[in-house]
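Protocol step 6 of 9: fold each sequence in the batch and record its structure tokens directly after the sequence line. For illustration, a two-sequence batch is reproduced in full.

Sequence one:
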Amino acid sequence: MNNEFFLKRYWKMLTTPAGKISMGIVLAFGFAAGIIFWGGFNTGMEAANTEEFCIGCHEMKDNVYEEYKSTIHYNNRSGVRAVCSDCHVPKEWTPKLVRKIQASKELWGKMTGKIDTREKFVSHRREMAEREWARMKANDSQECRNCHNFDFMDFSEQSTRAMESHSKAFLGTDKLPATGETCIDCHKGIAHELPSMHGIEGW
């Protein structure tokens, strides 16, 4: 009985002119707040994808950024530069959000000073590299493929070795199926110095 009374009273409130105006104000406020929150969230996430943000700590600026500046991804004949997020953050929204959540644990490393000197950085380089290689292997080198789409590769412009490797990895041959390798299987160290590769198959 109490529930029925409450529902009737609530319905009457919603259907009166004052109730409609109040509900309209609440809905309009909620809609505006949602837009502001969503816009602020996306703006913050995109700000965290800039090169300036990525090298804002000396651990990145003094180590991997210096290495990256000597590679073709930084300076090349076409003038197209890949910044940190191009290689380390997916473009699609959901995978990007997942990557940002994963990256939040790197703040713990910053706070605890895990790699705050060159010596500490070098000693942890392999651990960090293997974690990133595993992530890229698991997503089929998604970030690489944002720029290097296999469907648009012109094998005639590649070296014989590259053409053979790409053909075997992605297309297979008359006698053998594609190996299922992905970019990171062969292109480790493309933008940063490699750690000791002792014990890693194929290196």
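Sequence two, same batch, same settings:
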Amino acid sequence: MDGNGRWAESKGKHRVFGHKHGVKSLRRAISFASEKQIQALTIYAFSSENWKRPEKEVTMLMELFFTVLGSEVKKLHKHNIKLKIIGEVSGFSERIQKKIAQAEKLTENNSGLALNVAANYGGRWDITQAAKQLAGLVQKGELTLDEITEDRLSSAINLDQLPAVDLMIRTGGDHRISNFLLWQLAYAELYFSDILWPDFNAQAFQDALDVFSGKERRFGQTSEQVALG
């Protein structure tokens, strides 16, 4: 969800103004995904690299995260949405960790849209923590090297309970994935939009889906093989 700061600066406002408006865009995106019966929506809210931003902005983002967790979770629950925070949660303050636990607990049995919020998350971290899990099992004698397969590693990576990602959308004009879901995006279609996140609406979301629906997804096969099913 890129472009909040630039959007605010283009209007002569502080970057916090853009982040607050970005929350409104997020609400629209969640509503759209739920209405379209999309199985899962994963949003990149705060990367492990975002701690490098100016201290004032990071502090504001943490406060915004805390506030949104408190104000939005009941609405998510009302609409049968299941919330999951992925990332190194231990890096947050105790009060934010408590809010996260409460939000996940409230929505854990919901069967609608799976909303995953990547916070203090990095794709390299995700793969590393999975490797450490398997290494620990090997050290304990509970797993052999030959038993370490792609499927076994995948089971230790976040979102393992969900199908592989089909489509990644990045707003803001940059054409890179910035350490997001590196393992999970292996066969995803990538869609880059010049729209800054606060301006991303239902039509922009639909445009991305329309482009995606026109893609031929071969997964290593030829077009002829795909046509034959």
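Proceed to step 7 once all outputs are recorded. Observation for sequence two: The longest strand covers residues 40-47.
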